[in-house]
Amino acid sequence: MSNHTIAPSPPSVRTRVRRVAELARYDRATVHAILDDAYLCHIAFHDALGSHCIPTACWRIGDHLYIHGSNGSRMLKRLFDGGDACVTVTHLDGLVLARSAFNHTMNYRSAMIYGQFEKVDDIALQHAAMEALMDKLAPGRQAQVRGGSDKEYAAITVLRIALDECVVKQRRGGPQDDEADLAQMVWTGELPFTHGRGPAIADVLCGSEAPDYVRAWPTESA
Amino acid sequence: MSNHTIAPSPPSVRTRVRRVAELARYDRATVHAILDDAYLCHIAFHDALGSHCIPTACWRIGDHLYIHGSNGSRMLKRLFDGGDACVTVTHLDGLVLARSAFNHTMNYRSAMIYGQFEKVDDIALQHAAMEALMDKLAPGRQAQVRGGSDKEYAAITVLRIALDECVVKQRRGGPQDDEADLAQMVWTGELPFTHGRGPAIADVLCGSEAPDYVRAWPTESA
What we know:
The structure is a homodimer. By secondary structure, chain A is α+β, with helices and mostly antiparallel strands. Chain A has helices spanning 28-36, 74-80, 123-137, 150-154, 212-215, and strands spanning 24-25, 40-47, 50-57, 59-61, 64-70, 84-97, 105-116, 118-119, 156-162, 165-171, 189-197, 201-202. The interface between A and B is large, with 94 and 94 residues.
């Protein structure tokens, strides 16, 4: 399996995986797939108070990952004020049970992005970005809701980070036992997690029929 | 709803939630519940290369959260070498669809811990910590597998961080629409995510019966 199937992004000193390096991938398609499966990321940054790890909604447009928040957010202010960031998305797919305690592991898909966020100042681009977020949450819903007012847009900041310096680390499959442990009589295998969707819950004040994206919700995998 | 129901941990300058402060909780029981629901956390720290956001397995014993890894891990070396850290666990529970674009939100449970990790040097405590991790993954399995050898223990580092400076931010329930938007005719409510378990997958080399914790796996919620 090649690590560089599509649009390779060569590892930097920060993204080169040193430990269990065979789990690393640097191709853009793999990064995109992991980001597109996620609704939120964790962002690491630091300021005078120390390091912070903040979860926030994220969505991808092309080769950038977008976030947004209130103008008052200390994280957003720090991020577009030149602070460096590391953004990570992780999906946990299963527990892997091996014959020896120390060979137990987990299956996961994780994407990390290093870099600096930039502010999306252009109002048309801000609108496009926020509408892309809505399209990700509920395709077609933008036309059904009351859109953002000028005042609402003025109160938020939209930021994006380029997917230039990024890396995927992922593991799948069963345990890798040491030859010497194969005689150990114990169940081995994978205990998978599922990432599912439960039945939609209409609000008590909701007087409208469920649109397609709500009716389809519980049947799609998340 | 009180923010201080059990063993209150007063907010610090880093943990006091400023934005949508009514979603914050500081009591220990709520922090514990969110950590115990998780198998991994994201850890923010910084070094000469900048900020990093690393996912890693975690487990709680009493009022500490534990992590472990290879002695060669740059994160572990930095963390027990005095680097400050922020550890975050987030569960995403649903999308919340409101009548206006900007009132859309998500339901989630997030716990953040600030502080410094300390190394668990005592070998008996290291053993106890690693066996607690196994108990979390698969209760009773420790007695069935080949336990860690002295050499294996010597190659790993176990760290823990006290749950002293921590905060929970969580949201549940349906949308909160503005009064002026209530006439907007559109479906509103919550699209829940489920955190489930799929059927156990026995390894091709597995010749043993499934123990209780494997047979019970798909029927429990994760």
